[in-house]
Amino acid sequence: GPKVLQIPSHQIIDMGQMVTLNCDPVSNHLYFYWYKQILGQQMEFLVNFYNGKVMEKSKLFKDQFSVERPDGSYFTLKIQPTALEDSAVYFCASSLVGQGYAEQFFGPGTRLTVL
Amino acid sequence: GDSVTQTEGPVTVSESESLIINCTYSATSIAYPNLFWYVRYPGEGLQLLLKVITAGQKGSSRGFEATYNKETTSFHLQKASVQESDSAVYYCALGDRPGTGSNRLTFGKGTKFSLIP
What we know:
Number of helices of chain B: 0
Helix content of chain A: under 10%
Order of helices and strands of chain A: EEEEEEEEEEE
Strand content of chain A: over 45%
Helix content of chain B: under 10%
Distance between the termini of chain B: 40 Å
Number of helices of chain A: 0
Radius of gyration of chain A: 13 Å
Order of helices and strands of chain B: EEEEEEEEEEEE
Structural class of chain A: mainly beta
Distance between the termini of chain A: 36 Å
Shape of chain A: globular
Oligomer: heterodimer
């Protein structure tokens, strides 16, 4: 079936540095999402994105976070500067349509470790 | 905010026996959220198992079933006869956006299931 790819699979970074997580969504999908999962906790919604704009973000989406998808390339999550509490697995997802019943296709996740 | 509570794993049963994973939800912004079960097989990404968007309806896929019960705010996942290939982590989720352009999911913590060796 359709696959979402995430690069890298694991990133280790020092606190205060910038990190960019990359997502290659399903090719014809129009809606994009990031979720965050801290070890032992549930996956939580961060942000969704459509037509070049953030549609909705949660309280977890701090000012240090930003997303973009320039010219149909990777959908990226940038954190600048990083903090210890940003250590988590970040999952990217995409969907063809934006209705609430739409199936979201998930990537395998990027494990971010902030030292 | 919204929340989803599901059976705490790990859950183990013998091959050919039945499996049930409980899921209850609380949706504060919408009376009838969309309900989903996602599954993560070993070494793979999260994928949709089944969904139900109408209260009272039942969804089914790969031998699994779940009924949307608005009275008990539950969406339990069941399978009558499990196999080795069902070993995975199962996630209950709700979507509270009925419209377009602002879809988001609230997940439970996941329930790991495996066969008794």
